[in-house]
Amino acid sequence: MAFTRFHPEATPTARIGLGLAAVGRPGYLNLGRAADLPAERTPEALRERTHRLLDAAYTQGVRYVDAARSYGRSEEFLAGWLESRAEAAKELVVGSKWGYTYTAGWRTEADVHEVKDHSAATLDRQYAETTALLGDRLDLYQIHSVTPESPALSDPAVQARLARLAEAGVSVGLSTSGPAQAEAIRAALEVTVAGRPLFTTVQATFNLLEPSAAPALAEAHEAGRTVIVKEAMANGRLAGEAAPPELLRLAQETGTSADAVALAAVLAQPWAGIVLSGAATVAQLNDNVAAAALSLDPAPLTSLARLVEAPETYWRTRAALPWR
C-alpha cells in the first residue's frame, strides 16, 4: 500500500500511528524509561517488545508504523514482524527516515548516540540499508529532523534522488525539529523538482508544551500534505506522574489518563493527519489508542494553554534530557 493511498480518516484509530524510537535501541531520551523496559535490554528482549507492540497496535486498528535508520534495530525488528504476519503486512503502511546514523553500538552510556548528515552520500547508503531490510515494504521515506539550514532543502543532488524515489512509487517526506520548525516546514513546501512538489508528508513535533509549528502545519495541510505529529507526549513530560497537575486533573475528570488527554488534544487539531504513539509498553499503547475515542470540550483544552513554553525553552529542556 503506497502512503499516498493511505486514508487515516477511515477509522478513528487509524489516525494513531506507532513510532518505534523507544523500542528499537536500548537508550532513548524519554522519562520513565527505566520502568518501561526490562533491565536487560538485549536485542532479543527489545525485538520481543517491538513485536508485542506491533501485534497490539494492529489488533486495535493502527495501520501506520514509523521507523528510522537511527532507531537502532527498529527496521530489522519491523521487517521480522512483517515477514511473520503476512495478512497484517498487506494492510500496514510503513515509513522510515534517513539522515541520522546510529552510533551508540547498543550501549545506553554512549557519548554520542546518533550523528546527523543530510548529504546525498548518506541518503544513498541509508536507503540501501533500509531496503535491504524492508524491501518493497517501504511506503514513505522521510528526511530526519530537517532544520531551516539543512542542505536537503537546497541540495539538487539530494532532491533529484528523492524525486526518483517518488517516481518509483515511494512517497517522500520530511520530519522537523528545533525551535524554528515553522520556518523549515514553510521552506519545504516551496521545494519542487521538475515543477512538482517534492514532499508528500510533513512530520513535526507538536504537543501541549510546544505548539509553535501549528500555523505552518495548517498551511501544509491546506497545501495537500499529510501532517504526521511526533512527540505528542513531549518525551514523557506529559505522561504518567511527570504530567503537569492541570493535565492530571483533566484526566481524572474525564476518567482517563494524562497520555490519552495529551494525544486527544493533538488529534483535535483539524490539520493533524496521523499522531504517533511512542509507547514502550502495551499498557501505554492502550492508553494512547484510547485517545482516538476521547472527545474533549473546548473549555478544558483552553485551560491547558497555560502549559505552553517558549520554543527555545522547550527545545533546550529536551536537549538536556538524559539518554536512559
Would you kindly provide a written description of the structure presented here, covering whatever features stand out?
The protein is an alpha/beta fold. The protein has a single domain (9-107, 118-318), classed as Alpha-Beta Barrel (TIM Barrel), CATH 3.20.20.100. The protein has 13 helices and 12 strands. It has helices spanning 33-36, 43-59, 74-84, 86-91, 120-134, 156-167, 181-189, 214-222, 245-254, 258-267, 282-290, 298-303, 311-320; strands at 16-19, 64-66, 93-98, 100-102, 114-116, 140-146, 171-176, 192-193, 196-197, 201-205, 226-230, 274-277. The strands form 3 sheets. It has an 8-stranded parallel β-barrel, surrounded by 7 helices. Strands 4-5 form a two-stranded antiparallel ribbon. The longest helix is centred in the first third of the chain and has 17 residues, at 43-59. The radius of gyration is 18 Å and the shape is globular. The mean pLDDT is 93.
